[in-house]
Design goal:
Number of domains of chain B: 2
CATH topology of chain A: Non-ribosomal Peptide Synthetase Peptidyl Carrier Protein, Chain A
Number of domains of chain A: 1
Strand order of the largest sheet of chain B: 5-4-6-7-1-8-14-13-9-10
Radius of gyration of chain A: 12 Å
Distance between the termini of chain A: 13 Å
CATH topology of the largest domain in chain B: Peroxisomal Thiolase, Chain A, domain 1
Largest sheet of chain B: 10 strands, mixed
Structural class of chain A: mainly alpha
Shape of chain B: globular
Order of helices and strands of chain A: HHHH
Number of strands of chain B: 14
Shape of chain A: globular
Oligomer: heterodimer
Order of helices and strands of chain B: EHEEHHHEHHHEHEHEHEHEHEHHEEEE
Number of helices of chain A: 4
Chain lengths: ~80, ~425
């Protein structure tokens, strides 16, 4: 399996968010603020949970602060690369 | 120096239910007075693995009421509770001002809280072999999840408590909420109960207790047979029921329509056995409510009984009514609406109090259906099979008893 790019990860996550909030995926941009979209801290946990399932990774508890979709995408993509090894 | 307690009259101004007999008051009223059964073969994938394949399911689809974002964070129990809170506030035509929100509380009863969510978690771990649970598992399964969801929805900041006394949970919640208003701690309360435990694991646990009804051979809908000689046990049900309670002063000041008045509440514990009720324990509960109301026993005209259709409860409850009411027991009418809506466990007491109010408003006593085979130990007027008109119905009682022994009786008065 080839490692997805940050942009590809971002597309998958955007789809998850759109599905959860029942909004048009086109309204979600990489620099969209997650809270502004309507996700609270627990929703972000849920997003990470689903990302772990989808990409077969484990996100450690001591992760960096997340405020935008791009933040999550970068984190997830980095963990995919790291945990592939 | 003791502080005198305010003694406010407590009235019911809002009603709402999600139940096996319908999710609107109109539907529920029609069904409960027409002797319609909400009990069916369980509509679920695991039905073939059950010994007891019947239940009283609520026809409730969360997507009809809430966004996916909202309902996916709530157990089915909380979804139904939340919907009835919205319905009850609407029915009460209550304007949720900031002042009211701070003077209003929520008392809810539930037996098993978010039973669906906890079981879903265990299925993931133990059956599917997955090694982690969804992030919302704790928040969806905790017993106070429903009451918290209601507070968040309406921004109600007063006392918020969840009562967990098994089958009497929501009768206790309504009774305790009425006391809060009576003594001046709140102007209004949302009081009710919610239960949704029709999961594979929970039904199996109930099967093991040998208290579930056998399915009627001819008609599954006729399986709950309270007070009948051929009764075989209770039928599990799900749903939620919510009342808006207000002080009489608060209700009249805003010109509210008053459905009924709560004039008495009593609670006692059998302290006998984890499942076996006693005549004394149940009679004590009934007498406590009468004393609380300051009402003579012979004023009660109708009792909505606990009437589970277990061998033990119905005979014990009949004897307790006789002990508490004396000769008057043979003059009043008693019915078990569980014959139609099944046993809603933590939501039962609130739903049955609500039905008792519907009886007072319509001057009709709901029947005990499936009562065709009289039991000599159950010799009161149970309004068998067909509803009965009672034009001057002024005082009624709703009884709830429970595993664990906590009983609750509520006394309702018609509001003219």
């Amino acid at each position: 399996m080839t490692t997805p790019t940050v942009a590809e990860v971002s597309q998958v996550l955007a789809k998850m968010i759109a599905d959860k909030l029942e909004i048009d995926v086109a309204t979600i941009k990489p620099d969209s603020n997650l809270e502004a979209l309507g996700l609270d801290s627990l929703d972000v946990f849920d997003l990470i949970f689903n990302a772990e399932d989808h990409f077969h990774i484990k996100v450690p508890n001591d992760q960096v602060a997340i405020s935008t979709l791009q933040d999550v995408s970068v984190l997830v993509q980095r963990l995919i690369v790291e945990q592939k090894k | 120096m003791t502080k005198p307690l305010h003694q406010n009259r407590v009235v019911v101004t809002g009603l709402s239910a999600v139940s096996p007999l319908g999710n609107t008051l109109t539907e529920l009223t029609q069904n409960v007075f027409n002797g319609v059964s909400g009990i069916k073969r369980l509509d679920t994938a695991f039905v073939d693995k059950l010994d007891c394949k019947i239940a009283a399911q609520a026809n409730f689809n969360p997507e009809d009421y809430f966004s996916k974002h909202k309902f996916s964070m709530l157990d089915r129990t909380s979804q139904m509770a939340l919907q009835t809170s919205i319905g009850a506030i609407k029915n009460a035509n209550l304007e949720m001002s900031d002042t009211l929100k701070s003077r209003m509380g929520i008392y809810l009863g539930t037996g098993m809280g978010g039973a669906n969510s906890i079981e879903e978690g265990y299925v993931r771990l133990y059956k599917e072999g997955l090694n982690r649970l969804k992030p919302f598992t704790v928040l969806m399964s905790m017993n106070n999840a429903a009451a918290s969801a209601i507070a968040l929805e309406h921004q109600i900041t007063g006392p918020n408590l969840t009562f967990c006394t098994a089958c009497s949970s929501s009768a206790v919640a309504v009774g305790e909420a009425s006391r809060l208003i009576r003594h001046g701690y709140a102007d209004a309360m949302l009081a009710g109960g919610a239960e949704s435990l029709l999961t594979f694991g929970t039904i199996k646990a109930w099967e093991a207790l040998r208290t579930l009804a056998e399915e009627d051979i001819e008609d599954p809908g006729r399986s709950s047979k309270p007070f009948s000689a051929d009764r075989t046990g209770l039928v599990l049900g799900e749903g939620a029921a919510m009342l808006v309670l207000e002080s009489f002063e608060h209700a009249t000041a805003r010109g509210a329509i008053i459905h009924a008045e709560i004039i008495g509440y009593g609670s006692a514990n059998d302290s006998n056995h984890i499942t076996q009720p006693t005549v004394n324990g149940q009679a004590t509960t009934i007498l406590a409510a009468l004393a609380d109301a300051g009402l003579a026993a012979n004023a009660i005209q109708y009792i909505n009984a606990h009437g589970t259709a277990t061998k033990l409860n119905d005979a014990t409850e009949t004897a307790a009514i006789k002990q508490a009411f004396g000769d008057h027991a043979y003059k009043l009418s008693v019915s078990s609406t569980k014959s139609m809506h099944g046993h809603l466990m933590g939501a039962a007491g609130a739903l049955e109090a609500l039905i008792t109010i519907l009886a007072m408003q319509n001057n009709i006593l709901p029947p005990t259906i499936n009562l065709t085979n009289p039991d000599p130990d159950c010799d009161l007027d149970y309004v068998p099979n067909v509803a009965k008109t009672l034009p001057n119905l002024e005082y009624a009682m709703s009884n709830s008893f429970a595993f664990g022994g906590t009983g609750a009786s509520l006394i309702l008065k018609k509001h003219d």
